[in-house]
């Protein structure tokens, strides 16, 4: 089937490559000429495991190409809209400029029978509004809202083998559902649930899933605050409560909290939209979820100051990790970058490393010294702080690292190191939600 994917960022580039992998003939369209030139050369615009190989395969077969010209969407039967929906600059709501611009540009090239498939995360009510616009601009074309649940770092697998597909439809009888089933035939063959509903519910499925995940993380981080106040250990607590199948252990890792291009802006946009609908009281708890999350960043700075003897001024701090999570180079609203920047702003001399995110971090916060080498970062450091739990940081050898630093003090912002191993090797080990050594 001929498909277009509009917006080739973290979501769209992966979606386009995966759709080509499923055998479709795909054009990816984006307004960013550098991104498109790179993609046509097989260069992924960001770090995502498996994407470079997928791009190389599909570009090689001729089933995948990229363009800056929306006219190249003409002739596709299905058009996925995967453009960004960032937070507005001065308020909590989502900025839908890109979504409307993309759909308006696409309208000029739609034919009756074409299907537009919304994948971006949008406030409830957007799909119905867009469907009227599409019905007006191209009678006979229709809109399906098909929110995306992929996780950066696992985006290829999550797109090829989603744990569920959600279709929001105006009218289950209009045939759009069958066409989208054909697009996803391979994924559906593995008996994955395909859940059909109205537009509003489909839009809410996405934002409520993100709100739930954010709440679970902030719940355990709130417990970490109480553990810090009482001398208890949040890691032991999480293991113990996580055994209850009604609670589950996933997303119960206390630490520096959530970040990235989705959860923070999605819960804020959700609150803003609920307010517009007169249902703001329903989501006031998300304000607390957001502030618990942000408080962890200041607590991390405080702990680092503590291991430095009460002041950060002139202290050499090695920062391990800048991406908002491992296996990604994404630093959008990254707790790690935010803590690294705060340490520097409070007078420390920060050398930060990350296996993939250094270029993005350096663009956003050029004031830090950057390296990709842990050994270089920790050289003569007064304290080491772990801010993203990359596998290579979880498995560091405390004895070897101890020979490089000026003072063996480590603050584990992700509870990803074994305290006894570091303490036995002579380190001062501190972590969020865990007691000081006895
Ligand atoms: P992104 O910023 O990486 O990519 C958005 C892309 O859209 C950019 O390349 C931009 O140049 C392009 N674009 C903007 N306006 C355009 C236009 N008029 N025409 C064509 N292209 C245009 O963002 P992302 O992380 O890929 O997210 C996209 C959407 O998917 C957002 O709504 C996000 O919330 C949602 N989402 C993201 C993820 C994720 O893990 N990144 C997961 C699920 C859902």
From TrEMBL:
Q: Does the keyword Metal-binding apply?
A: no
Could you name the domain of life of the organism this protein comes from? Answer: Bacteria
Say yes or no: keyword Oxidoreductase present.
Answer: yes
Annotated GO biological processes are: polysaccharide biosynthetic process; UDP-glucuronate biosynthetic process
Any idea which positions bind NAD(+)?
30, 35, 85, 121, 152, 265, 332
**Which GO molecular function annotation, any one, does this entry have?**
UDP-glucose 6-dehydrogenase activity
Q: What is its EC number?
A: 1.1.1.22
Q: Which SMART domains match?
A: UDPG_MGDP_dh_C
Supply the InterPro entries for this chain: 6-PGluconate_DH-like_C_sf (IPR008927), NAD(P)-bd_dom_sf (IPR036291), UDP-Glc/GDP-Man (IPR017476), UDP-Glc/GDP-Man_DH_C (IPR014027), UDP-Glc/GDP-Man_DH_C_sf (IPR036220), UDP-Glc/GDP-Man_DH_dimer (IPR014026), UDP-Glc/GDP-Man_DH_N (IPR001732), UDPglc_DH_bac (IPR028357)
Its catalytic activity?
Answer: UDP-alpha-D-glucose + 2 NAD(+) + H2O = UDP-alpha-D-glucuronate + 2 NADH + 3 H(+)
Q: What class of enzyme is it?
A: oxidoreductase
Pfam name, any one: UDPG_MGDP_dh_N
Entry's NCBIfam families?
NDP-sugDHase
Give the protein's recorded name: UDP-glucose 6-dehydrogenase
- Native organism is Arthrobacter pigmenti
């Amino acid at each position: 089937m001929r498909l277009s994917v509009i917006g080739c960022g973290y979501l769209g580039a992966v979606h386009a490559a995966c759709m080509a992998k499923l055998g479709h003939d795909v054009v990816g369209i984006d307004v960013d000429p550098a991104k498109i030139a790179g993609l046509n050369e097989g260069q992924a615009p960001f770090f995502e495991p498996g994407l470079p190989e997928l791009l190389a395969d599909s570009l090689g077969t001729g089933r995948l190409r990229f363009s800056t010209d929306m006219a190249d969407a003409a002739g596709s039967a299905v058009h996925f809209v995967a453009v960004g929906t960032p937070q507005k600059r001065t308020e909590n709501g989502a900025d839908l400029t890109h979504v409307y611009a993309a759909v308006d540009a696409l309208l000029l090239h739609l034919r009756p029978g074409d299907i537009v498939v919304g994948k971006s995360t949008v406030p409830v009510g957007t799909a119905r509004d867009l469907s009227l616009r599409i019905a007006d601009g191209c009678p006979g074309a229709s809109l399906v809202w098909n929110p995306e649940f992929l996780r950066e770092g696992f985006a290829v697998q999550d797109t090829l083998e989603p744990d569920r597909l959600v279709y929001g439809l105006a009218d289950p009888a209009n045939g759009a559902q069958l066409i989208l089933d054909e697009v996803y035939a391979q994924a559906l063959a593995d008996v994955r649930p395909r859940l059909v509903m109205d537009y509003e519910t489909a839009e809410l499925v996405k934002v409520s899933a993100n709100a739930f995940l954010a709440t679970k993380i902030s719940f355990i981080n709130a417990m970490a605050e109480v553990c810090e106040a009482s001398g208890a250990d949040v890691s032991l607590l999480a293991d113990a409560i996580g055994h209850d199948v009604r609670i589950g252990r996933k997303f119960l890792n206390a630490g520096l909290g959530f970040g990235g291009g989705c959860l923070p802006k999605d819960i804020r946009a959700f609150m803003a939209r609920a307010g517009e609908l007169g249902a703001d009281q329903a989501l006031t708890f998300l304000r607390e979820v957001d502030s618990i999350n942000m408080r962890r960043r200041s607590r991390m700075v405080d702990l680092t100051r503590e291991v430095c003897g009460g002041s950060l001024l002139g202290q050499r701090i090695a920062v391990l990790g800048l991406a908002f999570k491992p296996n990604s180079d994404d630093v959008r609203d990254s707790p790690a970058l935010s803590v690294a920047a705060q340490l520097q702003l409070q007078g420390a001399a920060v050398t930060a490393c990350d296996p993939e995110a250094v270029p993005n971090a350096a663009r956003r916060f050029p004031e830090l010294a950057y390296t990709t080498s842990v050994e270089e970062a920790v050289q003569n450091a007064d304290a080491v702080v772990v801010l993203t739990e990359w596998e290579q940081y979880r498995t560091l050898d405390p004895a070897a690292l101890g020979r490089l630093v000026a003072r063996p003090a480590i603050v584990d912002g992700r509870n990803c190191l074994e305290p006894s191993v570091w303490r036995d090797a002579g380190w001062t080990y501190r972590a969020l939600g865990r007691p000081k050594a006895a």
